[in-house]
Amino acid sequence: MPNESNHLFARPIVVFCLATLCTLLWGSSYPAIKTGYALLNIEAHDIASQMVFAGQRFLLAGIFLVILCLIFRKRFRDLTPTKLRQIVVFGLSQTSLQYIFFYIGVAFATGVKASIINSTGTFFSVLLAHFIYNNDRLTHRRTLGVIVGFLGVFIVNFNQSLLDFQFSLKGEGSVMFAAFILAAASIYGKKISQGMDAMVMTALQLSIGGFALLVVGLLFGGQSGDFDIGSAILLIYLACLSSAAFALWSALLKHNPVSRITIFNFLVPVFGSGLSSLFLGETILELKNIVALVLVCSGIYLVTVNKAQKAK
Questions:
Q1: For helices 198-219 and 47-71, what crossing angle results, to 10°?
Q2: Which pLDDT tens digit goes with each residue over 52-91?
């Protein structure tokens, strides 16, 4: 991808600030979701209400992005029936199905563990790409990165004494499965995005996926909860972070080499763990958490730099 060095989004200080802001926003979603559960009195076992909460967030995010598309005069009329069907499939998989498991997992796992385990999506993407694309095979460096990353996820599931492995399907398992769904859906999204505007595609898939989550959650008896000013602001924040982070990330990728942007992915579990510790009072200064975080970030660095250098 050519680097438009004279563009605002290609200036090093702008790249650093905006890419870090995106990862900070994504990392903040872990404590924000758990705080939303507490404010709206959504219990860990109340899956239907969790789906309603997720649906409200992503439907709003989709609407915000649609408004941005209209402001930037993106072309909706170029969408054919085939492209719309592809967007529906994409929205139901990447947004609806993925976040059903993600929101369940966050309810049963700590924010620190969820942010680290969810990083397995990077490694799942590398593994899936190896079997799908002939020009995207595993190398020794990528294989090492995947092994190191999964080792970090394995370590974070031990207790503090490292003598008892603590892993539940509802909590950690759901977060990991959500990461796998995201990796698979992202490959499908990459395929269908070749023939349409990426921002338009994401605006529609977020709207469709969010609406589906909301409807299914309500049909199964989910409640939106009693919103007050605090919980309403939190929901709007979650919606805005999804739409804003995507818009900024897309602009950065458009005007910079892939390697310059994707390397910032390793900050997501760092921010997620740190903010969960800060706002939820969860313990991060345990040896196993620090070791796991270092290993996961190292794994992401190994697979991302190798992939980015090849693309460059």
A1: 150
A2: 999 999 999 999 999 988 888 887 877 889 989 999 999 9
Residue 158, strand partner residues:
165
pLDDT band at residue 247 under the 50/70/90 scheme: confident
Q: Please list the residues that pair with 165 across neighbouring strands.
A: 158
Query: Do residues 57 and 241 touch, judged by C-beta distance below 8 A?
Result: no
Asked if 242 and 95 count as a contact pair (C-beta separation under 8 A), the reply is no
89/49 Cα distance (integer angstroms) = 23
The amino acid at 216? V
Name residues whose C-beta falls within 8 Å of residue 170's C-beta, 6 or more positions apart in sequence.
Answer: 104, 105, 108
What letter would DSSP give residue 173? I
H-assigned helices in the chain: 12-39, 47-71, 81-90, 98-108, 111-117, 120-132, 140-156, 174-192, 198-219, 229-255, 258-262, 267-280, 287-311
Q: Could you give the dihedral angle defined by the CA atoms of residues 191, 25, 117 and 222, in that order, rounded to the nearest 10 degrees?
A: -90
Angle between helices 81-90 and 174-192 (to 10 degrees): 160
- The radius of gyration of the chain's CA atoms, rounded to the nearest angstrom, is 19
In whole angstroms, what is the distance from residue 176 CA to residue 96 CA?
16
Paired residues of 124 in beta bridges: none
Structure tokens at 225: 């909860």
pTM > 0.70 = yes
